[in-house]
Every structure is written in C-alpha cells, then in structure tokens.
Specification:
alpha+beta
C-alpha cells in the first residue's frame, strides 16, 4: 500500500463547534464511475459516523439520477454531477426550489475531450489535431473491422455518449472513414486504452479527467482548431435532437454536488457539510490511481481516504463532528 496521501485544502475552516443532532434517513446516488463512487462512500462514512444519519447508497447514472431528483425528489444527494450536459434541466430545478447546487465537487472543474496516446503524437505531431487524425483512420483501427478507423464513445446512459455522437457528425468523421465504437461499460472504455498502451497501438476516443487512466497513461487531447462555443455545446451538442451540430471543444466541465431542496431544509447541519466537501483534480487522480492499483471499490477507498487524509476532511466539518469521525476509526 502506498504511503498516506498528504493533501492540502484551499477551503475555509469550518466552525469550531456545531453540536450536530442526529439526522434521519438520507439517500445518496452511487454513480458508476470511480471518483463518484468514492465521493458517495466518503459522504456516507461522514454522514453516518459524524452526523448520525442512516445512509442508503442507490445505484445511479447522470441522466437517470438527475431525472429522478427532479421528478421524484430522490435520491437526496448526487455527489458528482457533471452538469454541463444537463444544465438547463438542473437550473430549472434550482429556479423552482426543488434542487440546490451545494459545492463544486471537483473544485477546479472536470476536463473532457477526444484523446490519442502521446507516443503516437511523438512520432506524428499532426495527430494532436483533428485534421491529422481524420487523415489517418488506418492508425486507429476499429476492433471489428480493421479497414476503418474507430472512435471510442461512452457507455449507454452517459451524457457524453450524446455529445460524442454529435461531434462525430459535426467533424464529418464517417466521411473520413471512422465509425463509433460502443465500449459497453466504463471498464470496457478504460480497458481499451490500457490494451492500446501495452501494445503501443493507435487509440482514439472520448475520455475525461480526473481519472486514474489519464494519470497512468499519458494521453494528448486532440485540438479541433475551433475553440470553445459553450452555448452551442449546451444548446445542441449535448442534445439528442440536435439536427446541425457544429465542431467545438468541450467546455471545462461544471462538476457539482446536487442535493434536493427537501434534504437541505430537513437536515441543515448535514447539508452544511456539502457546502465544503470538494476535491482537487490533483488529489483525486492520486486516489483513483490508488483504487486501481489496489483493486479497491468506493467503500474500501473511502475508508482509506478517511484514515489517511484527516487534514483534508476535518476542514469540511465542525470540530465535534470531526472528533466523532476520528473516534469511529
């Protein structure tokens, strides 16, 4: 096991004493990617041991969780919501006082894009641009048909599946000899990068940061040469019914913790924790790499984080709550 993580926080110090009363039942979305599952399990540990909540983790995904929070008022908390793709619906929930954005769960935002391995760019610098990529489909062979190039997309149910499809269309990738590859799962997507790296083969596809994969395997984000048209990205590229998508780079992602208004008003002391709990990408990359190296799930990784990062999580909660959490270890 690696040495304990040493991380710092730029967050303000919490009040010294809260005398938090025990809270009731709380439901948290346990999203199906590592950083979100880690956050959900850290939140569960802190709410149960520091605030006396009874926490239920509910399997979640970006679109169905957001829809459920809007329509059914559950789960209470989505710890890591990549909100760019569904900002209008979420903002409507905010305006109607059904939801709250409590904190930027990734304090320096998330990064998305199409990526290629650095070893390819070292050999052919033009592959750092979409023009170079489109000119060489033979370097990114489709696993089921090596006569065409392949672009790895996102698993079904992820918002990025829509944006990838629309950008594939906008960049005229089919005309250049590419087809979209459905990886089937998050593990399938990350595994495809690992296999390509082991063999030093071509790989092209969507990925995001912070992730253990981009920390472990050096990748280069492909430059579309378009800059960022954030409004078009929101209004069209992220929409299934977008008829005329235009090329644009991904905006820096707004990654936030979303709670229901009912939770925030019902459990104000527990909600206060969610206004402070945030991870820097640098720290999250280290945690994600540890999870992968140790084959740890969100539950095990949360315990590891709590045990080794008191200097970080203790700044998210009042002193009496921090003491309860420490004593629970």
């Amino acid at each position: 096991m690696r040495k304990a993580l040493i991380v710092t926080s730029v967050l303000s110090l919490a009040p010294a004493i809260s005398f938090a009363a025990d809270c009731g039942d709380v439901s948290i979305a346990d999203m199906n990617w590592s950083s979100a599952s880690l956050m959900a399990n850290v939140d569960k540990f802190i709410l149960e041991n520091g605030y006396g909540c009874t926490v239920d983790l509910i399997p979640g995904d970006t679109m169905p969780t957001g829809t459920s929070m809007l329509e059914k008022n559950e789960p209470d908390i989505a710890p890591e919501m990549w909100a760019n793709s569904s900002i209008d619906a979420l903002q409507k929930g905010i305006d109607e006082k059904r939801l709250r954005f409590s904190v930027n769960s990734l304090s320096d935002g998330g990064e998305e894009g199409f990526w290629v391995p650095k070893y390819l760019v070292d050999k052919m610098p033009e592959l750092a641009t979409i023009e170079g990529v489109l000119a060489h489909p033979e370097l990114f062979k489709h696993p089921e048909d090596d006569s065409i190039g392949g672009l790895y997309s996102c698993p079904a149910g992820w918002n990025c599946q829509i944006s990838t499809q629309n950008l594939f269309k906008a960049l005229k990738m089919e005309e250049a000899g590419f087809e979209i590859i459905d990886p089937g799962s998050a593990a399938g997507l990350s595994g495809s990068i690992a296999r390509a790296y082991e063999r030093e083969k071509g790989w092209l596809g969507y990925y995001w940061a912070p992730t253990a994969i981009l920390g472990k395997y050096e990748m280069v984000k492909v430059d579309f040469g378009t800059g960022i048209d954030k409004q078009h990205f929101i209004d069209c590229v992220t929409q299934e019914d977008c008829l005329d998508p235009k090329p644009t780079m991904y905006p820096s992602s707004f990654v936030t913790t979303v709670t229901t208004e009912s939770f925030a008003t019902r459990e104000p002391e527990a909600y206060e924790y969610f206004t402070k709990r945030a991870f820097r990408n640098k720290d999250m990359n280290i945690l994600l790499a540890w999870m992968e190296d140790n084959q740890a799930d969100g539950d095990i990784a949360a315990e590891y984080f709590i045990e080794n990062n008191e200097n970080l999580w203790s700044q998210w909660v009042p002193a009496d709550v921090a003491m309860k959490i420490k004593n629970s270890l």
